[in-house]
Amino acid sequence: MRVRRLDPVTIDRIAAGEVVERPASAVKELVENALDAGARAVEIVLEEGGRRLIRVSDDGAGMDAADLALAVERHATSKLPDGDLSSIATLGFRGEALPSIGSVAALVIDTRAEASDHGLSIRVDGGLKQPVRPSSWPRGTRVEVRDLFAATPARLKFLKSPRAEAQAVADIVRRIALSRPDVAFTLAGDHLTTLEFRAAGAGPEALARRIAQALGEEFALNAFPVDARREGVRLHGFAGLPTWHRATAAQQYVFVNGRPVRDKLFAGAVRGAYADFLPAGRHPALALFVEIDPREVDVNVHPAKAEVRFRDPGLVRGLVVGALKEAILAARHRASETGASALAALRGGEPRRAQDWSSVGGAPPAPRTGLWGAHPAAPAQGRFAEGDFVAPAARPDAPDASETSDAPLGAARAQVHETYILAQTRDGLVIVDQHAAHERLVYERLKRQRAESRVARQPLLVPVVVEMDDGAVARVLDAAGELETLGLVVEPFGPGALLVRETPALLGETDARRLVRDVADTLAEDGAALGLERRLDHVLATVACHHSVRAGRRLRPEEMNALLREMEATPGAGQCNHGRPTYVELKLSDIEKLFGRR
Hints:
Elements: H1 8-19, H2 23-36, E1 41-47, E2 53-58, H3 65-71, H4 97-104, E3 106-112, E4 119-125, E5 128-129, E6 133-135, E7 140-146, H5 162-179, E8 184-189, E9 195-197, H6 204-215, H7 217-221, E10 223-230, E11 233-240, E12 245-246, E13 252-256, E14 259-261, H8 264-274, E15 283-284, E16 286-291, E17 297-298, E18 309-310, H9 313-330, H10 338-346, E19 411-416, E20 420-425, E21 428-433, H11 434-451, E22 457-467, H12 470-478, H13 480-485, E23 489-492, E24 497-504, H14 512-526, H15 532-546, H16 557-569, E25 583-587, H17 588-594
């Protein structure tokens, strides 16, 4: 076949396939154009999920006749005044959105520039451009897209139901609204609930209000602020507590210089930051904003501008991981606010309102107990005894436990079913899962020891022979060097067996056979997919899980209070190694509602 040049309409329709995949893609391009035009209010209306109609109206600068005629031509844009692609400060810049949409639908634009005496209108139908005409449009710009993909009906087969397409548009509008709290957004139409985001102004408090509007009260109740800088790059926003996790990553919103992005770099960084705190297959919710010199990021690597490329990706990834980990640890023992909401749901009432975190400085207060011994009700000597969950006996002159009611996790009052600790706080009740809590404490102690390269080991008086299948033995022996750094020393002992000579001292008297078999299972699950650091953490988590105080163990009052005090002083103690909450807090007001006292 001979080579021939494609006609302009076919070229535009091919370009449209890259830029406009579905109604949500068209809405994204049109709303970004409105924001680049200085709009302070944007209204979006849909019919049939955007297939029949998309209408985007704004109060921006508008266009004169010359600009309007050029706006529907390919590769024409007002976003690159000097043609410099190395420093893009606008949301749109390719000059393909309007002509691409016009090539596959009926496109009508009404606009009026601020200095114009009257409005203007232009129509593009299936790629055929008509002359600019006068219009009565009063201010800003209105873009109507009717019968999307009418010129390319094959594309309609790949669209989902009108409801699904409308929800995709709602997600796009929500993402853009999060990035611009100073702009009002309204989305209306069939197959969706009207979204209305009032303009919240500028600054951290405005951003917090917009995040609460967009992501809801529950997110506000279970989020903490993030704010960090490194080498000219700033990361700020809010992230959900590890115990408030979701089934998918759909509630992860990331913005680079105000541009919503879905980038593998951020997805990996978030997974790394939360790795120690989430169960497998669960994802945190967050809204994070990266501010960086435009010359340090390339936004021209994806037709839909959904991905970016950084000049120094390691710097950005390190900032995200470090800032999130630091913020998670700053939350210390705090867990998700599930208890009060559950009580309210039980009686059909409304959940307790979120705490006020409208300013970035509104992080949860650090516990007042600090290190061990800072509180008068802490054990008389040291921490729990090595390898066991035993606190020293209380001194005869020790203060009454009621004095610890002012502590964040209160004073232990009882143990229920030999599994749960009930503690009284000044304004409520805390219920602690003793195994989950101690599991996290043991894990954090082991990690601290490993970081200091001094995991204490205890030689066994009589080495223990562990018999397993050849594959399990091979896995453990292959990792023998890594395990030794964790305090577990093993060596070969003939076919299908190995010898355990030393175990971590922190575990005290432990079942060495069970410990080694658990480690072998963990190594089998991880395989070679994880790096050394994560493999070691997984092994430590396994050790902590299977060798912490178990449910069914009866505890003395001083032991229970010792556990509460160490939880308050231990980062991440609000959740166990699997991401489950270690405690729930019920406010007295919520309990009173159950009994009709309020």
